[in-house]
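RETRY 2/3 - previous attempt timed out on the joint model. Re-submitting the same 1620-residue input unchanged.
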Amino acid sequence: MPMVVNCAVYENGRRVADLTLDELKDRPRKPGSFVWVGLHEPDEETLSTVQQAFNLHPLAVEDAHRAHQRPKLEQYGDDIFLVLRTAHLGKDNKRELGETHVFAGRGYVVTVRHGASSSYALVRARCEAAPALLKHGEDYVLYSIIDFVIDNYMPLAECLEDAATQVEEQVLSQTAGRETVAQVYRLKKEIMEVRRSVVPVIDMAARLMRPDNPLVDPNIRPYFRDVQDHAIRVVENLDNVRDLLTAAVDAGFAYLSMTQNDVMRRLGAWAAILAVPTAIAGIYGMNFEVMPELRMTFGYPTVVATILVICVVLYRMFRKRGWL
Amino acid sequence: MPMVVNCAVYENGRRVADLTLDELKDRPRKPGSFVWVGLHEPDEETLSTVQQAFNLHPLAVEDAHRAHQRPKLEQYGDDIFLVLRTAHLGKDNKRELGETHVFAGRGYVVTVRHGASSSYALVRARCEAAPALLKHGEDYVLYSIIDFVIDNYMPLAECLEDAATQVEEQVLSQTAGRETVAQVYRLKKEIMEVRRSVVPVIDMAARLMRPDNPLVDPNIRPYFRDVQDHAIRVVENLDNVRDLLTAAVDAGFAYLSMTQNDVMRRLGAWAAILAVPTAIAGIYGMNFEVMPELRMTFGYPTVVATILVICVVLYRMFRKRGWL
Amino acid sequence: MPMVVNCAVYENGRRVADLTLDELKDRPRKPGSFVWVGLHEPDEETLSTVQQAFNLHPLAVEDAHRAHQRPKLEQYGDDIFLVLRTAHLGKDNKRELGETHVFAGRGYVVTVRHGASSSYALVRARCEAAPALLKHGEDYVLYSIIDFVIDNYMPLAECLEDAATQVEEQVLSQTAGRETVAQVYRLKKEIMEVRRSVVPVIDMAARLMRPDNPLVDPNIRPYFRDVQDHAIRVVENLDNVRDLLTAAVDAGFAYLSMTQNDVMRRLGAWAAILAVPTAIAGIYGMNFEVMPELRMTFGYPTVVATILVICVVLYRMFRKRGWL
Amino acid sequence: MPMVVNCAVYENGRRVADLTLDELKDRPRKPGSFVWVGLHEPDEETLSTVQQAFNLHPLAVEDAHRAHQRPKLEQYGDDIFLVLRTAHLGKDNKRELGETHVFAGRGYVVTVRHGASSSYALVRARCEAAPALLKHGEDYVLYSIIDFVIDNYMPLAECLEDAATQVEEQVLSQTAGRETVAQVYRLKKEIMEVRRSVVPVIDMAARLMRPDNPLVDPNIRPYFRDVQDHAIRVVENLDNVRDLLTAAVDAGFAYLSMTQNDVMRRLGAWAAILAVPTAIAGIYGMNFEVMPELRMTFGYPTVVATILVICVVLYRMFRKRGWL
Amino acid sequence: MPMVVNCAVYENGRRVADLTLDELKDRPRKPGSFVWVGLHEPDEETLSTVQQAFNLHPLAVEDAHRAHQRPKLEQYGDDIFLVLRTAHLGKDNKRELGETHVFAGRGYVVTVRHGASSSYALVRARCEAAPALLKHGEDYVLYSIIDFVIDNYMPLAECLEDAATQVEEQVLSQTAGRETVAQVYRLKKEIMEVRRSVVPVIDMAARLMRPDNPLVDPNIRPYFRDVQDHAIRVVENLDNVRDLLTAAVDAGFAYLSMTQNDVMRRLGAWAAILAVPTAIAGIYGMNFEVMPELRMTFGYPTVVATILVICVVLYRMFRKRGWL
Ligand SMILES: [Mg+2]
Ligand SMILES: [Mg+2]
Ligand SMILES: [Mg+2]
Ligand SMILES: [Mg+2]
Ligand SMILES: [Mg+2]
Ligand SMILES: [Mg+2]
Ligand SMILES: [Mg+2]
Ligand SMILES: [Mg+2]
Ligand SMILES: [Mg+2]
Ligand SMILES: [Mg+2]
Ligand SMILES: [Mg+2]
Ligand SMILES: [Mg+2]
Ligand SMILES: [Mg+2]
Ligand SMILES: [Mg+2]
Ligand SMILES: [Mg+2]
Ligand SMILES: [Mg+2]
Ligand SMILES: [Mg+2]
Ligand SMILES: [Mg+2]
Ligand SMILES: [Mg+2]
Ligand SMILES: [Mg+2]
Ligand SMILES: [Mg+2]
Ligand SMILES: [Mg+2]
Ligand SMILES: [Mg+2]
Ligand SMILES: [Mg+2]
Ligand SMILES: [Mg+2]
Ligand SMILES: [Mg+2]
Ligand SMILES: [Mg+2]
Ligand SMILES: [Mg+2]
Ligand SMILES: [Mg+2]
Ligand SMILES: [Mg+2]
Ligand SMILES: [Mg+2]
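RETRY 2/3 succeeded.
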């Protein structure tokens, strides 16, 4: 994939020209016109060219050089710098997180993708297919990108929910084992990470919706509120999954503890029953010369019968008390 | 059930005409007059007709197409879009949650029902029976709907409370078992879900009561405060049930743990007592040629007596220490 | 007890007349004069007469018809509606909660008692005994009622503290048992309920103290702050008791777990020691024809001595390791 | 100790006269002059004399009559009423809490000590030794008192930290026992109590620092910030100690649980090993007439060897699995 | 290391002179010029000279005399006093915390280092290498110092993360033991301490960024936001590590508990199986004269076969139930 994925000029909601990065500096600057640049893991030189073209703040560019920033929205005067964590469901439902940085201001939007994030070609295609909306300009593009990012979290959250439901089923059917513990551990860790990626978007959207935001027109504000609503929904789904997992683990532990105690109690009860014949038989296995019982004709059957009676009584007693 | 349940014009608190959806566009628009439309799982065409008639915002209509939105209140200029989760106690006290979307603005109120929600025919009947209040207009209808939705949560919350009280009784009478664990798990999950459905209504009511809300007249504000109060009461009941459940589970675990330890200790104590005759009898069961005790006339009764004494002493000792 | 407990007119801090409910409507309305009505579980008609006399808001009266409201303060214009949960220490220190509703506005104060609440005759007597303060009017009466309600929580909170201290003592003296578990469960539940009854009063007092409150004069504000202070003290005492209970339960569990493990370990150690003579004696109890040891003159004492030595060594070893 | 510890007039930072309580009423009232009265558990009459001299609010005096108030700051017009909980390290590092009430306003500061609190003679001496600061007047005296109170918490917090460190050491060296549980319980309770005594001072200082406070001059504000900073430090130390204690208890439980399981597993493993010779020897102890093995010359050594081999194999197996 | 590490005058971003402390008082005071003093554990006299030169507030200097202050930002008029906790990775990745106090105001910046903190020579070198930025004056120096302090936390946080990952691996590979418990305890304690050191910087940066801060120019504000962002990142990393540790400990306990129960169950099951031959053989080891089975030719093999069958059946049953 090339470093410069796309670089086009838009006027009144329509793509009017494609530029190279070097042409950016001398682009035509008319009101209602803006440039939309898409970069993918750019090198320092590429980023530096873009920085000079749009006069980006050095602190923002410094962050964009390195991935692994936390999600945030920073305003430098009229210019905005956004860091977004992106969700990606890969092959075999492999859940991955990538990162996108967005620079936006009067006349330009620049996206910088890092890692396992989906291409924004689809966003661009959708925008170009709706010129009536794209006419609104940079703020509509910004909305479209964040909307796309948040929409990608939905399937990932559902995928996490499926995994948690599997754990739940294992627990309720009492087939949870060692592997379930590791699975719960990994799921919890992943939910925490995804949550940390989405939560900041709620606040970002709130700040972009504020009336004093210079870049966002009043008629675009409801769109950012919609993004915020979807982000909250993702977070609530994640919280849901986490709570479900916690409750399932609690139930699982209760079952496990009950089962383990059951087993130990039953083994203990059997051992206690078996200790009776052992003890009594031991008595009559002693080699004293004078043991009158040994001489009795019905001594043996009497003792065996006594042992059986004791064992049966104990068995019934244990049974009644729920020990067996 | 038809998709269009009802569609009527009201003037000064009285129903003056019934319309078809197609007549909506050319309805008479006088001050003090409004249309109240009731839909049930409408198809796209129906919703689109209504959208055009009242000029509804596309983002709101997009949400209304699909159920499974989170409860929320969105304002688009003077127009309001409400998503409510509704409670329903079905046959055999089956607890279900449905969803209702409400569009309201100058001159119209539209309700869209999804899933297991109760019909609003009752609300309409009540409103029509009180023209002095219905005269207040759209805001009073809005209040009546939310009030009805919240009132339906009361029996459901009580039903959850009954279920929790059953668990509590099982625990305190020490008859809780494996099934109780699953029951607690399911109850907790359900309480969390119901809570998530009601909590947002508290904030919705607060926002509808605010002085700057264009749609709600000052004399209707106390009614929304009343709705808010009832919503808080439902939430407090749910929190109550949840806390009760948590405390009962803690007590149940304490009992279980005590009982299980009791049983193991008693079995262990009996095993220890029985190990004494086994060991002593084993000694005198040895086949050494020279074992003077075996020759003694009172050897056997002495040993048996000794064993008995030791066992009784141990029994008393264990008893005194509370081990038996 | 009659439904109308009291109904009197006050002027300049002195009781000047007693009225029947029917005379309320045509009562003299002078500045500095007000009516104070005391009701006890009134029927609908009584409440309706009062409502018409003072023009009470229908939503407030609706709440007053039924007990089991949550504690709250609602303002309808210049009129105030208060719901208070009241504490009552009955015979044998039986802890009970009742409910009082208060309507107050220019020229009137109405109290409506439900359930196990103390009579406000005492409050009335105290007010009438201090005309210099009662001269302040309705706000001073309002203060006196809330102050009385909160003061009644103090002995109840102390009673709960005593109960918790008993639990604490049982735990620290290691005599806690099954009954303690149930006791802790019930105490926790009760503390939660009492707490929920008092906490809202803190906010009520804050709202009554606000400068923009039309009914409360500046020189009465410190009195409401005093009520608030006492409510906070009750809540802090309850939190204290709850924390103490939680810590005691933790300590109790630690003790229990230690004790139970001690017992099992000791029983296990004794069983292990006794298994040695059993095993060795078993060997020499075998009936092989060729067993040279059995022929030896000192075979028997040697084996017995060996067994004793092993047992003593094991005993000492276990002792040293703290297993016995 | 007398009830009136001290009662002096200050002018321009210097003590100019000592008064009796009865002279207070007719004291000279010049700007820049104030009276500083120190009381110790005064009776009603004494307090009443002071109340009349400085026109103290009856609600504040009511609180001052009884100790056991919660820490708080109340303003009555220009007059301030402070309740402080005081820390005291007695003999043998005995940790005690007392109470001090402070009345302050234009021209006077009154301190009322209850219980185990240190005398403010030291504060007075320090103030009198720094006339340049004492010249600031009542607010500087107020600061000096609160500063002294907070400074006294430092050694107490360190004393609690030492106690917690002892617990920590016992836990990490695995010598924690029953007494440690009681110690942790008592420490936690004490930390909670001390914390509740200091936390309110943070807010008090904040309120005294506010620009609209009539009694505190701008140049004294940084001093109250300093007091606040020290109070926060005490609270953080206490939180630290509490967290340390919690973590140590967790670690201690983990150790205990591991140790107890170790012991039970080892005893169980030995019992299992010893059950083998018992069972096998039991077989050859049977008295059947036809048991060919008993006739074999090498039957006995073969069986003993077999038993030994099985026991050694089991021992090694258990060892390898970490069961022994 | 000397107490005065550095003391230089800067004009327009360039170092123009080096001073001794005694020359500070009579330094040239031009706009755009400032002095930057670096001290290392100064004695009282040194600090006093500096205090007089820059007119530092006595309360701030009092704090600077002693280390072990909590991180804070205090403003005295236009002058700022900062307490920072500093991170230091020593030899063999030894993690240490030091302390730095910063005084800053119009025309001066003074740093005071205590304990294991890195020298600020590097910061000074970097600033002097960028005169265009250093030209901004005291606020840029302040930023550079805080930035350096926060940057030093990054490797320390990563080091803690590595330690936590090691614990995690031990847990998931089920090799966690007693030493892991102590390690987790120490790591948790350290994370809490580091967290407490960084968290206050978030608020400090926020206060330095506020428009009404007299010392910080608008164009330097984004730099403080950058510092704040990095501080938040450090805190989030620490929270991450802590959550990871908690989850790993939970998983570890689950494993441990499962393993220990497995072992006890298996030992118990074997003991129960072995109790069968012991009991049966005991019966036939009794010495009754009349025991017909003993006379039967196939009595012995029949009994042995019966024992074997019972044992095999039990073994299979236990196996099937997962007890073995
Ligand atoms: Mg960052
Ligand atoms: Mg987070
Ligand atoms: Mg939504
Ligand atoms: Mg949602
Ligand atoms: Mg959430
Ligand atoms: Mg949720
Ligand atoms: Mg959701
Ligand atoms: Mg929720
Ligand atoms: Mg209510
Ligand atoms: Mg309620
Ligand atoms: Mg709640
Ligand atoms: Mg509640
Ligand atoms: Mg409630
Ligand atoms: Mg628990
Ligand atoms: Mg108080
Ligand atoms: Mg209190
Ligand atoms: Mg509270
Ligand atoms: Mg509290
Ligand atoms: Mg308290
Ligand atoms: Mg507290
Ligand atoms: Mg400090
Ligand atoms: Mg501190
Ligand atoms: Mg704190
Ligand atoms: Mg802290
Ligand atoms: Mg600290
Ligand atoms: Mg634990
Ligand atoms: Mg912290
Ligand atoms: Mg960060
Ligand atoms: Mg981070
Ligand atoms: Mg964090
Ligand atoms: Mg993080």
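DSSP finds ten helices and seven strands in chain D. Closing ticket.
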